[in-house]
Design a protein that fits this description.
146 residues; mainly alpha; 6 helices
């Protein structure tokens, strides 16, 4: 009998903030200079790898300690009294998440290595003055004939 099902975001509350951190690091990476890109990219890759290992360890241990209140509500038995016979079933989506995080960490490392060969961006702050040549419209033509 299944009393209740929980997703990874409910079971492991640290997932959402760390995924937002990885997303912000990735976004910041593309709007910074090369030196900063190297640092931010390395931090992003390390964060992705660390999160994948943390999730993998939690999945292997089938740790549901953060669900104590929810399990107590579902069973009606206080968590301090001990519950025997609880079966934890881990779905494939947890392992797919670990694989996706490892792939993303690898992509970040590949991007860090590739950033060295990217051309330097130049910022254009001034417009080039228009060349004095033939007038392009009728008003300019009229002004040039005066």
């Amino acid at each position: 009998m299944i009393l209740q099902a929980f997703d990874g975001f409910t079971t492991y509350a640290y997932l959402t903030p760390v995924l937002l951190l990885i997303a912000s690091q990735s976004l910041f990476f593309f709007f910074s200079t090369k030196k900063i890109q190297m640092v931010v990219g390395a931090l992003g890759a390390a964060t992705s790898f660390a999160l994948s290992m943390a999730v993998l360890l939690e999945l292997q241990a089938q740790n549901i300690s953060s669900l104590g209140k929810a399990v107590e509500t579902a069973t009606g038995i206080a968590a301090t009294h001990g519950i025997d016979g609880v079966t934890v079933i881990t779905e494939i989506s947890g392992y797919l998440t670990v694989a996706a995080l490892l792939f993303f960490a690898g992509a970040q490392v590949a991007t860090i290595l590739a950033v060295k060969s990217w051309p330097v961006r130049t910022s254009r702050t001034e417009r080039k003055p228009a060349e004095a040549g033939e007038p392009e419209d009728t008003i300019s033509l009229w002004d040039s004939q005066r």
